Amino acid sequence: MPEILNDIKLKDRLEAIKHFYNSGVTKAYSFRKQQLLKLKKAILEYEKELYKCLYIDLKKNKEETWVTETGFVIAEINAALKNLHKWMRKEKVSTNLVNLPSASYIIPEPLGVVLIIGPWNYPLQLLFAPLVGAIAAGNCIVLKPSELAPATAAVMKKIIETCFSSEYVFYIEGDGSIVVPQLMQEFIFDHVFFTGSTITGKAVYKLAAENLVPVTLELGGKSPCIIESDADIKVSAKRIAVTKFSNAGQMCVVPDYLLLHESIKEFFLKTLINTIEQFYTKDALGSEDYGKIINEKQFNRLIKYLEEGKIIYGGKYNKENLFIQPTIIEHINVNDTLMKDEIFGPVLPVITFSNNEEAKSIIQNNPNPLAFYVFTSSKQKENYWLENIAFGGGCINNASWHLTNHNLPFGGRGKSGMGKYHGKYSFETFSHFKAVMKTPTWFDPSLRYPPFKGKLNLFKKIIR
Predict the structure, then answer these.
(1) Which segments of the chain have a pLDDT < 70?
(2) At CA 235, angle to CA 231 and CA 239, rounded to 5?
(3) Nearest by Cα to 143 from 124, 171, 183
(4) Residues acting as catalytic residues
(5) Which of 84, 94, 322, 435 is the residue whose CA sits 20 to 30 A from 429?
(6) Is residue 447 packed enough to be buried (19+ CB in 10 Å), middle (13-18) or exposed (0-12)?
């Protein structure tokens, strides 16, 4: 059972973390590097236990766990270790004419004590990937895992406590609706990083606003996937199926719905169904590559969607096993719940379109999606969609894999979130970039001082 902390004990814990940060220990390059190495070593030492626990919580196999959880975090750590010295370096920038002969530079510094709140769908990756950035940037951290993936939360606790003192990284469990407000009311964090639903994200944002605490919100939304008439149908079907039904669709960047050009509807859907059965067999319940729904609450929410539209594939479910078959639904209306809610499960609505304006109007019902995907062989069509749809990040002729490239920033916009991370962008999110200008005393022209009368024309020449 998680330790329950009363207000006084919690406040003491948080103040101890602040005191440790103020000691300056975390700011040294050698310290940051050492902590990253310790974290990497511990994750690898607990690799087998992570496989076991992620299977218990979400029925993830070892291969999927490595690609989307353990290996993902190791890659983030490796990127930070490789580039940390460069990221920490003072950057010299040019100085404008009016300030010459001054020197100007930017110094990255840690924010302080940060709070990272993780979700249940990728419980290791989405808690530890931002942790890597926070460590690299020199902060102290409070980690709040999701209580809905308890097996994984338990092994993550072991990893953290193996590596770090609680004054440096404090791992706190419990009901998020109780623990998070308690944390944010007891202590003023220097940054809050939240991954989860838009509804909960709004609540976190509101709590942070009370003390003007900056936030990163990694939310979700309805990410559209467009399949144009000239798409490579076989490749498109494979890349959509493997993403949409990975983790039983419980991923924020899966294609939430398909916008399928009417000219290829029959061939594409036939190919997609064949692909699903090749990947997960006709009985996905017995497939080692197909996961389960996280809990009964989410299961009950998802099966209600099966009552909308027309099921053209799948639709079977088993409550005892928290199983919902990969499902494709057509004849969907834009006013249906399926087209308003973020589905976050293995249910895929398909809507056909005949022209760009028709497809664009459907997307605009849920603007600023976290992800956006286009399958096409045409550079012209690719450019049209990139120029006409606002979104967080996305792919051309692929789906979701952009988030595995740590050289790309990952994050949403509008209702799908704010801020970005991965690779150097994580370091930047958890850093303040201090602007400094150093001016010599040997050059001190009277032009800079009153009286200013008669100097306007000269000012116009040097300030422009």
Answers:
(1) 1-7
(2) 110
(3) 171
(4) 218, 252
(5) 94
(6) exposed
Cβ pair 224, 395 in contact under 8 A: no
Encoded tokens for 112: 């302080």
> 275-319 pLDDT, tens per residue?
999 999 999 999 999 999 999 999 999 999 999 999 999 999 999
Say which DSSP state 50 is in: H
Residue recorded with tokens 């849920």? 366
> Token pair 């020199």 is at which residue?
138
Q: Is 204 exposed, middle or buried (0-12, 13-18, 19+ CB in 10 A)?
A: buried
- The label of the residue with tokens 């589905």 reads 343
Strand 393-396 to 371-375 pairing? parallel
What is the pLDDT, as a whole number, of residue 1?
A: 40
Which helix (H) or strand (E) covers residue 184, if one does? helix 176-186
Q: Where are the alpha helices (DSSP H) in 89-146?
A: 125-136
Torsion, Cα 131 256 307 324, to 10 degrees, reads -50
pLDDT at residue 4, as a whole number: 52
Q: What is the DSSP letter of 205?
A: H
Query: Residues 38, 39, 44, 46: what is their CA dihedral angle, to the nearest 10 degrees?
Result: 110
Give the C-alpha separation, 123 to 146, whole Å: 7
How far CA 158 is from CA of 43, 48, 51, 164, 247, in Å, comes to 10, 13, 15, 10, 24
* Residue 317 parent element (H or E): strand 317-318
**Cα–Cα distance, 125 to 116 (Å, whole number):** 12
Distance between first and last Cα of the chain? 64
**Distance (Å, rounded) from C-alpha 215 to C-alpha 145?**
17
Q: Is the pTM of this model over 0.90?
A: yes
For residue 8, what pLDDT is reported?
A: 74
**Residue in the block written with tokens 């690898």:** 44
